[in-house]
Amino acid sequence: MSVAAEPSMTGDETAEFPAPLEDPRPALRAMVHTVRMYVVRDIDEFRRFRGVIGNLVSQELHVRYQRSMLGFLWTLVNPALMMSTQALVFSRLFRGIGGMGPWEYAVFLFSGAMPWTFLASSLTECTTSLIHQEGLIRKIYVPKWIFPLARVLIQGITFSLSLVALFVMLWPLGAKVSSSLLGLPIAMALLGIFTMGLGLIAATVHTFFRDFGHFLGVGLQAWYFLTPIIYRSDFLPADERWKFWLNPAYPFVRLFQILIHESSWPPAWLFLLCGFIGCATFSAGYLVFKSQERKIVFRL
Amino acid sequence: MPTSNLQTNADAADSPARGDVRIDAREPKLHGPVVRHIAEFPAAGRSRDEAVVRLQNIGLKFTSYHDSHPSLKRALLNLVLRRSAPATNKTFWALQGIDLTIRQGERVALVGTNGAGKSTLLKVIARIYEPTVGRLTTRGRIAPMIEMGAGFHPELTGRRNIQLNGALMGMSRAEMTAREPAIWDWTGLAEFADLPLKYYSSGMFQRLAFAIATEVEPEILLVDESLNAGDASFVDKAKRRILDVFDKAKAVIVVSHDLGIVSELCTRTVWLDHGRIVADGPTPEILDRYVRAVTGG
Fold it and tell me: Which residue, A106, A184, A210, B101, has most beta carbons within 10 Å?
């Protein structure tokens, strides 16, 4: 009855539906119990299906990059052009914004826009991740959450590659190499957890409401302008700046801005705040997803 | 014993066999309203070690959605304008009270008219459809041959598709690499191994799909009438291979309308109608009753 050490599906399975609970308990404890059960099962399935996750990620990267040598270049050229246009326009428009010259502004913009691009494109891809894999989900058993996870992982890889490449491009313009860059993997992991939580919600909602993608597009655009990415937080008068902290994406963006643009280590509380927001969002996304997961196959 | 939660691998072994245990299963809070459901286990009459697939009081409620394009816009408008959404969804039980134990070495056919729930039952065993109530136990690697080439990606080469499909069936990369030559050998497609799958002809595609599905040595094989296409030589070759796999598998469950295949291949037949088991027993006997009922004799 032991589970094989290797990721294989030879493990025996018993599952009861609806997943039973012990004696009637207070609602909260019953819920905790159910969630714990889901988590145990998903950790086990993560172990068994990591080969599939790896395959989904590598097949996508393969299709995207290997079959056209320009593939990766395009994912790089696009944000590079976008950012240089914005750097040119906005450094003129808001002349001397926060006392930054055009080159410094470019570095500032880059440090905030890169994590944003990761967040926005991950969410956009998560939205359709389930319905695009309809063929698979209806024909063979797979835990459904591997599809949003694969999308976030793919975007994460693209994000890291373009971060390195664009940094090299910005280096002559004044991007500084400092020890604070070592904090980037931590920042990326925190942002990844946050993104995964939102991605799970996006994937669930889109399966049940197929026009969610349109709402998401508009929402992301508005969210982008509400977040201090193209402008600095001193854009608002000092006594109103606290409002930025109501935006759950701002701490993450700020983390990257401090690490890359200001070349210093963010205060510990900022890491903790991002960790807290990330975990809370992930938990919320996980619960939303799990509560609907069994219905997804019938709604594709 | 009644501390039966989701039965993880460790405690799955001894729960059902102790006989006459009642488990009070309630809908977890996450899934909305509480549904009471009682599963009764028969006294341990037969050795539990033989049971490869065990379904206990399995029921599956289907919701057929009439609004094929559910929209957030409409839902929001309904909310704002305080209209109630038209109740367009019908629910029905696609499977009800299914009790079925399949033991090692059995080859079971599911027969029944269209809409009887045969394919649905197969998908429940494959864990594609999660049942609404009941308890499902499976032992061993399951290979659903419900539709060929489930995990195929047209942009990837044949070789990479083998890896992907292997992973979906729970094979490690190393295991699958070891089996690759046998697959190319059987299909005779070795020269196309590095060609993207979209350039394969449908016959080549099918041969590859079939070869992969049968190469992973499934312990529980689920087959849904997928053996009937391709040219004559392929059908012949495929039949020999599938018989070989049947012999190696612990259990085979086949859905077919072809009663010739059923009586040739299956030792036991389960007759389904409207989501319930009508009869279950040795193939000749059940088929005889089934044919008489269907032809109105």
Answer: A106
Residue A86's contacts (CB-CB under 8 Å, 6 or more residues apart) are A109, A113, A230
Is A9 an 8 Å CB contact of chain B? yes
| Angle made by CA atoms B137, B143, B148, in degrees to the nearest 5 | 140
pLDDT in tens, B146-186: 777 677 888 888 888 888 888 888 788 888 889 999 999 88
Domain B145-294: which CATH number of 2.40.440.10, 3.10.150.10, 3.40.50.300, 3.30.70.20? 3.40.50.300
CA distance B285 to chain A (A): 32
Neighbours of A253 (CB within 10 A): 24
Residues of B in contact with A132 (CB under 8 A): none
A54–B35 C-beta distance less than 8 A: no
Helix crossing, A102-132 with A70-93: angle to 10°?
130
DSSP letter for B95, please: E
* pLDDT score of A218 more than 90: yes
Burial class (CB in 10 A: 0-12, 13-18, 19+), A182: exposed
Q: Tokens 């056209």 sit at which residue?
A: A68
The complex's ipTM works out to: 0.75
Closest among A205, A196, A185, A200 to A255, alpha carbons compared: A185
Q: Is A8 part of any domain? A: no
Query: With contact defined as beta carbons under 8 Å apart, do B219 and A10 qualify?
Result: yes
Task: Report phi then psi at A218, rounded to 5.
Answer: -65, -45
Q: How far apart are the first and last CA of chain A?
A: 35
The CA angle B286-B292-B294, to the nearest 5 degrees, is 100
Report residue A90 as tokens: 């906005």
* Pairwise CB contact (< 8 Å): B150 & A27: no
pLDDT of residue A4: 34
Q: How far apart are CA A218 and CA A222, in angstroms?
A: 6
Beta carbons of A51 and B39 less than 8 Å apart: no
Q: Helix and strand tally (H, E) in chain A? A: 9, 1
Residue B116 CA to residue B112 CA, distance in Å, equals 6
The confidence score (pLDDT) of residue A2 equals 35
Pair of tokens at residue A267: 């205060």
Chain A residues with CB under 8 Å of B40 CB are: none
Q: Is residue A11 part of a domain?
A: no
The answer to whether residue A12 is domain-embedded is: no
